[in-house]
Amino acid sequence: MNPRYRRLLIPGLLLALLVVVLVSSLVGRAEGATAEPVVVSHIDDPRIQEASGLAISPDHEDLAYTINDSNNSPTVYAVQISTGSVVGTTTVSGGTLLDTEAIGIDGDGVLWIADTGDNRERRTDAALYAIPEPGPGAHRTTARRYPITYENGPANVEALLIDPSTGAKSLVSKSLLGNGTVYALPRTLSDRSANRATVVNQEAPSLVTDGTTTADGRFALLRSYTAAYVVDIATWRSVSSEQLPSQPQGESIAIEQQGRSFLIGSEGERSALIRVPFTVPVATASTPLPTDEATEAPPQQRTPRAGNGFAGATWFWAAGVMVLLVVVSVAATKRT
Questions:
Q1: Are residues 153 and 14 in the same domain?
Q2: What is the dihedral of CA 245, 160, 41, 80, to 10 degrees?
Q3: Model confidence over 243-290: pLDDT tens digits?
Q4: How far is Cα 257 from Cα 61, in angstroms, rounded to an integer?
Q5: Is 135 in the same domain as 265?
Q6: Residues 320 and 216 placed together within one structural domain of the fold
Q7: What CATH code is carried by the domain that includes residue 151?
Q8: Which parts of the chain sit beneath pLDDT 70?
């Protein structure tokens, strides 16, 4: 080898090694940045002051639905997620909606409204209301009303869970002290007589303000004012939990269509829609759910998302270049 080229060989390889490490580090940082919660938009509409439920449209891209809770008009608002603008309103009749706390959409495109709020736990007229998903634009519709009673007496329920694949529906009560309760509704609901909600678990987190389910119906996300809990629906046991970004009064949660993130919302003026990365659990190593939000254990870390095969292999590439450098250097020495 020409001595001049040999003198340039090792510095050149070292420079290549530096470039590999630097680029890999930058890619890794970029991926890490996407793993953080981000404010997508603000709902800047004076009609929406107490948003208390969120449902992502399966048929309309960049669209979600929300509704105010007690003492407001029975109106479902269609919101463009990326801007926070209201692009549709649906006035609902067919009953007296008093304290609407949750909404959800089933696999058949039916939007369900849970008129189940009951802070004093004395209501006898709790019900679900069902309407076709309205989409953008102004609409008026008459809902089908499905009355509900509870196995153990009136309950304050702010979370409605709908299995997208089967349509099975569950309710989760909000408890100020101690655990919440999970109720199962009959698979076929009646609009003529009361549908009895039966207790299936009494170890839900306290202060559950909303809930949503994964596309396969295996897991539920239950949110409180400060945390989100991933729950195995087969056992109703916690799989993991994580702290949520601070909000004035966090009242809503919905998994987005791709299943890799969820949105959370809050009551209040110009309430923010915040996107939080999410990885559907693979294993179901269940642990007990916390009983009191004030004393709950630190949230578990979210399972890291898979990398692109490059940024996560910095040291692999560096080691490879080092080995190549040594081999070439030895070969060059022998030739001289």
A1: no
A2: 170
A3: 999 999 999 999 999 999 999 999 999 999 999 999 998 755 555 554
A4: 9
A5: yes
A6: no
A7: 2.120.10.30
A8: 1-34, 283-336
